[in-house]
Specification:
171 residues, alpha+beta, 2 domains, 7-stranded mixed β-sheet, 7 strands
Length: 171
């Protein structure tokens, strides 16, 4: 066999392999609706598992820097105990209904202004600013305020909180 014929055979084999590889890539890597759905479901399950892990305290280990999930009168809610003070130094009732938490007071004040009424911004520990929708002197009062707020604001975003208002036990 002469050199020209060998070169042609090598070229034709290389072209065939390249074409076959391209067809294999195109058929195996084509995005499908089932693929997107499976990836979405896997990501959602991972996110839910991480959220559950963060919010449910492990037995023996309790997180001090975030709200704890509690069941009170058959209702699942989040409660935190924190030293808070009013933005202007005013005295606060013992129970607060926080509907947002921010690092900047201007954001908490803006959300409180959008809620109108008794809403206010209060400073928590560290660099936390809560937007408080309502206050009460007793636990029953704040539970009633929570139910009322959730009923009147069904699509509220609860920024920085676990998709629910947080009851703050003010120290």
């Amino acid at each position: 066999m002469d050199m020209k014929k060998k070169t042609e055979i090598i070229k034709s084999v290389a072209v065939s392999v390249t074409l076959l590889f391209g067809v294999w890539l195109m058929s195996g890597c084509k995005p499908t609706e089932q693929g997107y759905r499976a990836a979405y479901d896997a990501a959602r399950q991972k996110r839910e598992a991480a959220a559950a892990e963060m919010m449910i305290p492990v037995s023996g280990l309790l997180s001090d820097d975030g709200p704890q999930r509690r069941i009170i009168d058959g209702d699942t809610l989040f409660v935190t105990k924190e030293r808070v003070r009013g933005a202007d130094g005013e005295n606060l009732p013992r129970w607060l209904l926080a509907v947002g938490v921010y690092r900047m007071d201007t954001n908490a004040r803006a959300q409180a202004a959008s809620l109108r009424g008794a809403a206010m911004a209060v400073r928590g520990e560290g660099d936390r600013w809560y937007c408080v929708a309502d206050t009460a002197s007793g636990l029953d009062g704040i539970m009633a305020a929570r139910k009322c707020f959730m009923a009147s604001h069904p699509d509220f975003p609860y920024i920085g909180l676990p998709a629910s208002p947080v009851i703050v036990n003010a120290m």
